[in-house]
Amino acid sequence: MEADTLERVSREETTYESYYGFSEKPFDLTTDLRYLYRSESHSNAIELLRYAIDRREGFVVITGDVGMGKTALCRALVEKIDRRTFPVLLLNHFHTEEELLRAILEDLGLASWQEAQPEARRPTRQEMAKTLHDFLLSLVPLGGRVVLIIDEAQDLARPILEQVRILSNFETAKDKLLQIFLIGQLGLVPLLRSPELRQLDQRVSIRYQLKPLSEEEVVGYVSHRLTVAGGRGVAFTPTALRVVHDYTGGVPRLVNMLCDRALLEGHSAQTEGISEELVVNAAEALDLKPLVRPQRSILNRLLGRS
User: Fold this and answer.
1) How far is C-alpha 22 from the chain's CA centre?
2) How far from each other are the two terminal CA atoms of the chain, in whole angstroms?
3) Contact of 291 with 247, CB cutoff 8 Å
4) pLDDT band at 203, cuts 50/70/90?
5) What is the pLDDT of residues 242-260, one digit of tens each?
6) pLDDT for res 11
7) CATH classification of 40-209, choosing from 3.20.20.70, 3.40.50.300, 3.30.70.1130, 2.40.240.10?
8) What span, in angstroms and rounded, lies between the C-alpha atoms of 68 and 63?
9) For the chain, what are the domain ranges?
């Protein structure tokens, strides 16, 4: 933050949240499903995942660039899953096949028996896999199922991905016992297409890539978040929102960062609304460059170019 902005803000006793009447920060980077905006791309992804669950598809891969809201998508899916479906949502925090299996069992509440074992008698990978398989079979007469959702899957080591493939072999004569959704950044696609993982890649039945917000969706996204946060009607001008799209390319995380800083700039300037000039100031403070071709007449004018 520049010194002049800091000095101006320090003279104010309020934060921009209280100045604009927000009950909380409208553009916080944490995953809060109240702020989830159903863009066309995110809606399509959620519907595809629901379809996959209903059809008992074995492998599904959803990819998206950094900051596209993949984790929020995972949590939104878990919130909407019916009672007969047991979701296992895992972040990529395991480094061995054993850690993966243990994480799955713990999430399903099947690991308590392991804790009673002496430390020298930890269950083997085969024993943990059998425990999982037996549980999956027990759900069949009840019409139940387990969906394993692995977020940040692009960072999974190849041996762990091979273990995931082995788990996909759990099936009856009619259906898959375990459905597996891999959610990750764009690097997940070439990883799965590597020769070592060809068998796994061939089992993927549904693939989808999340797309950035369009210019129109940025308008809806910003309005939605301002409304949820409960402000006193502060708004970004239409031109300001076009500039937000130019600088962020419609990537939700970047939209959050830029709009948060623009509100701080507005608070510092004691304005009632957020203009395009304030958005440009915020972008420069964040060292952002336009990610899409800007409307030349707008940005050139704002940046003082001929």
Assistant:
1) 24
2) 28
3) yes
4) very high
5) 999 999 999 999 999 999 9
6) 45
7) 3.40.50.300
8) 9
9) 3-31+213-302, 40-209
Predicted pLDDT of residue 175: 85
On whether the CB atoms of residues 233 and 199 are closer than 8 A, the answer is no
pLDDT tens-place string over residues 207-223: 999 999 999 999 999 99
Question: How far is residue 80's CA from residue 74's CA, in Å, rounded to a whole number?
Answer: 10
Structure tokens at 183: 């959610």
Confidence band for 301, pLDDT divided at 50, 70 and 90? low
For residue 88, which of 31, 35, 164 has the smallest C-alpha distance?
164
Tell me the average pLDDT across 95-106: 92
Nearest Cα to Cα of residue 89 among 158, 146, 154, 172: 146
Answer for the pair 61, 55: CB distance below 8 angstroms, yes or no: no
Question: What is the distance between the alpha carbons of residues 96 and 306, in angstroms, rounded to a whole number?
Answer: 58
Q: Give, in order, the Cα–Cα distances in Å from 226 to each of 26, 61, 109, 144.
A: 6, 32, 39, 40
Residue bearing tokens 């061995």? 96
Please give the Cα distance from 305 to 298 (Å, whole number).
Answer: 10
Residue with tokens 């929020």: 72
Cα separation of 148 and 136, whole Å? Answer: 12
Give the C-alpha separation, 184 to 127, whole Å: 29
Mean pLDDT for the stretch of residues 39-53: 94
Dump the DSSP string for 56-76.
Answer: T-SEEEEE--TTS-HHHHHHH
DSSP assignments along 103-142, one per residue:
HHHHHTT--HHHHTS-GGGPPPHHHHHHHHHHHHHHHGGG
Which top CATH class is 3-31+213-302?
mainly alpha
| Mean pLDDT, range 253-275, rounded to an integer | 95
Q: pLDDT higher for 137 or 231?
A: 137
Rounded to whole angstroms, the Cα distance separating 255 from 252 reads 5
Looking at per-residue pLDDT, the higher value among 190 and 93 belongs to 190
Q: Please give the radius of gyration of the chain, using alpha carbons only, rounded to the nearest integer.
A: 24
Mean pLDDT of the chain: 88
